[in-house]
Amino acid sequence: MTDLLLNERELEFQLYEMLDTEALLQRPRYAEHDRGVFDETLRTARTVAAEYFAPHNHKGDAEEPTFDGQRVHLIPETKAAWDAFADAGFLAAHHDAEDGGLQLPEVVLRACTAYFYAANISTVAYSFLTIGAANLVKSFAAPELRERFLPSMLDGRFSGTMALTEPGQGSALGDIRTTARPAGDGTYRVFGQKMFISGGDHELTDNIVHMVLARIEGAPAGVKGISLFLVPKRLVNADGSLGERNDVALAGLLHKLGYRNTTSTVLSFGEKDGAVGYLVGEAHKGLSYMFQMMNEARIGVALGASCLAYQSFIHALDYARERPQGRLLSNKDPLSPQVRIVQHPDVRRMLLQQKAYAEGSLSLCLYASSLVEDAHSAPSETERSNAAELVELLIPMVKSFPSRYGVMASDIGIQVLGGAGYTREYPLEQYYRDNRLNPIHEGTEGIHGIDLLGRKIGQNGGAGYRLFLAKVHATLVEVSADATCAPLAARLGDALGILEQVTAELQDQVRADAALGHANATLYLDVFGRVLVGWLWLRMARIASGALEAGAEGSEADFYRGKLQAARYFMDWELATLEGQARVLREGNSVCFDMRDEWF
Amino acid sequence: MTDLLLNERELEFQLYEMLDTEALLQRPRYAEHDRGVFDETLRTARTVAAEYFAPHNHKGDAEEPTFDGQRVHLIPETKAAWDAFADAGFLAAHHDAEDGGLQLPEVVLRACTAYFYAANISTVAYSFLTIGAANLVKSFAAPELRERFLPSMLDGRFSGTMALTEPGQGSALGDIRTTARPAGDGTYRVFGQKMFISGGDHELTDNIVHMVLARIEGAPAGVKGISLFLVPKRLVNADGSLGERNDVALAGLLHKLGYRNTTSTVLSFGEKDGAVGYLVGEAHKGLSYMFQMMNEARIGVALGASCLAYQSFIHALDYARERPQGRLLSNKDPLSPQVRIVQHPDVRRMLLQQKAYAEGSLSLCLYASSLVEDAHSAPSETERSNAAELVELLIPMVKSFPSRYGVMASDIGIQVLGGAGYTREYPLEQYYRDNRLNPIHEGTEGIHGIDLLGRKIGQNGGAGYRLFLAKVHATLVEVSADATCAPLAARLGDALGILEQVTAELQDQVRADAALGHANATLYLDVFGRVLVGWLWLRMARIASGALEAGAEGSEADFYRGKLQAARYFMDWELATLEGQARVLREGNSVCFDMRDEWF
């Protein structure tokens, strides 16, 4: 199975043909590197993922974590994988060299993480959560606190979690009830219960650093009274040595459809005297700190979904190429040999659909990562702020498209295999189960739709939206001279026109009646997402067309022809339904809004 | 959980308002019954399903069957459920009174089976497979063979299976390799391996009667050389007593994504001297016998999918009504109480979508069952043959729409619950897993699409298709005077026009190039399915509108208003994409057809 781990050529295409990742070497932060360093890092990621993560992906699912009332038990391969990831330097790779990091660009590291997601999304979750928690500590914790915890989170001695959700509040963070009481010595005592905390308990590391959202006693209600605390599982002495157990207890493990080797926990803080917690940054600003990390977390979820989609695609393709069954419609001779199922047109349709979703999603996530990178390190202030505007606008689609269409790609993978796809003897059903979480965590489509329509579209006077339109228009102009791509550009041009019109009319609707105007925002999100991914497919098609014109041969030519065909599929098939959906939006359809509870 | 078992009012609506099930009492076969008998049978089904099936639905999934090399172990509740089903007479209910049956109409029994599917689809599979196998024995076996096996299959001593699929052949039945050698005494010795045989081994019954497709030595190749054999697990003496073990061995259990309490087996026939098999009916006609049962099996799969969709809907609704989270968009006061999530417009959209899929699917399956009933027992030959034509035409959609949209309804159910939906602490994730099998068994969409376009549409000079068009046109005329339904009828009228045009053009395409013309048949199947279900929703809307006009009040009025709103949803949202998809079909889009293996 390890030989079916993403596709190096595809990642290379995204990094160096779609994105100009080599140009990053011109930026001062990366001047010490060269392309060889990027490629070597990618190879290391692939090797570690293939050797330490992929082999127990199925086992970690079949033998999920257990809690004996005292300890959590994971299959031992999980610890070996954790160590290999840390030893290869990936926990710290994006940090500056002076902090012990490799000072590598965001987008290169994202491409590295793709291998881990593809190999074993639930084992690698411990590592990625730790990276996220460490980013919060690094960015917002006071120097003393940072010194005490960060080095151990970068070298793999400590792991981390993000403890936001509570049983009674779900996605509505403003209703967080966990409280923090000042202890008088600058620390706090934290009381409350958190739920769905991934990696919330295990014995992979000496300690677990929980980044906890809580409300300081007397704080304002709602989102403006939430603070961020660092609450370790075990206390850490000033010299860095481990102290006693903090008052954080595992109340229980949740049992999930997929992602099974990641513990999902209910954690109790302060069942005794209160859990010792350290305020991170300023009081009442917890949610804004968390939000600064959220875009990256959302790209991470989306990339995970993309990689599971990709794995579903290549495993289905592998099966379809090997499995003989039936004959072509034109052949009525029962004595003739069976054909491989990849030769059946409907199987090709399914594989092409998977390819369009998986590669489109992957491209979207890496593009978004490049924007995050540009927002930090692009040479000019204008480039940095434009990238930041654009990524803010696009995040709802970046999160939602790969999550939604990724599950579809996994679903189609089962269908390609038929009965075999439904059995646990093949990996498809696990990808399907694992992938089903992605449309939920880091914001459902319902939440992102409202965020898009109610906030992002009009943000800063619509600056991000205008940037996006300008970029798509520029591509349309750029490809207009390419006879191969012109028909694709025509389809995308129509789709963009539909999007522009719908957007304008929905903004009017929101102004006229905010509640009704937002009612169909999820559909709008989906429409926008397909136009966005359509744009990326047009760009991929243009590159492919150019490479073929330039004389690409053999497997390279096949690679580019596949890109072109997937782009055609996306334009002809996926954009075909936009107009009808836009009609629903434009008429301000109120059928769902008008439905009443008692009529169900 | 047993209180959330379908909805009696919904079944009543389908049987007595959508369908005129009471009119069946005029037919000689049912003259002895009255409506009270139908209702009592439905109540019995509900009670047995709730008491013996629903309580172990989760347990049968969590503790799936195991094979110790000698015996298959099932949780003991499975046997109690088997017995309760048999004791209530459901194994024989559709048979004539003189054969020990209840002589009940197909459509009433289908409605009864809905309760079992909803309660525990994998435990009841043993019973339904037995009913299918018994139907084959009854219809095609010679009297002596029938006498020896049928009574025990009707009273629950023996169970049955359908053994079609083999490891090397999958859906291509013409490639069956299992062979039958004449033993010289009128019996045969069967050799070969069968795979994905549901209920292929267990100890619920004294014996298992396998209905096996095999090829008599020297038979023609392909589908015309396949015969049907009865191969019991244990031989049965002429006096009905059990003899020794037959040469049928369990090679292994398959481990599935869902439907876990149904054993899925690999069976080896004839590892020693050959399994004793009895030819059923005439040699080489096995596939035609099987096909005569297949429509009913397909309606069964579709009904199972519909019921899982319905369960996903009502569990999501129940959660949405209880779960407080967040506030309405208009309310910025963080101190105000949270609302139940059913009040969020996007949650209502999801629930309405589930309702539209689940009730539309249920309606479709019961309508198809009523056609099967009419084909057998309608008063005139014309009515019987029309019903038979229509059911033949519609079966591809009857199988495919509930399977495809049922999984979507289960998927949406997870989304309504959010993180909770993803955990095994709630039943949604199991419905999702169970339901995922339904788009595969009894024919994938790929197979049904080709069957529809290549065979069914033109069958008997297009008689079935013309009947369908006439029926929809008649409904459009009938509702035109109803101001409430007129806008819905307008949408459906447009959709029907699209379908007619697409159908005509696709038939031209098939004539011009059969392979290319069939390439997009799956999309055509989906388009046809939505028009068909749209028609049923229009009829449901008309009934609801009439009932409201007639003064329905209270919960009855709410029920009908819900029907109207779901119909509006279906017309406005689900039919919105037809036109764009029809364009893909009408242009004879060849993107998927042209894709080559080496380009992937």
TrEMBL record, chains A, B:
Residues 162-268 form the Acyl-CoA oxidase/dehydrogenase middle domain. Pfam families: Acyl-CoA_dh_1 (PF00441), Acyl-CoA_dh_C (PF12806), Acyl-CoA_dh_M (PF02770), Acyl-CoA_dh_N (PF02771). Its cofactor is FAD. It comes from the Bacteria. Residues 468-595 form the Acetyl-CoA dehydrogenase-like C-terminal domain. Residues 285-449 form the Acyl-CoA dehydrogenase/oxidase C-terminal domain. Keywords: FAD, Flavoprotein, Oxidoreductase. Residues 42-156 form the Acyl-CoA dehydrogenase/oxidase N-terminal domain. Belongs to the acyl-CoA dehydrogenase family. This is Acyl-CoA dehydrogenase.
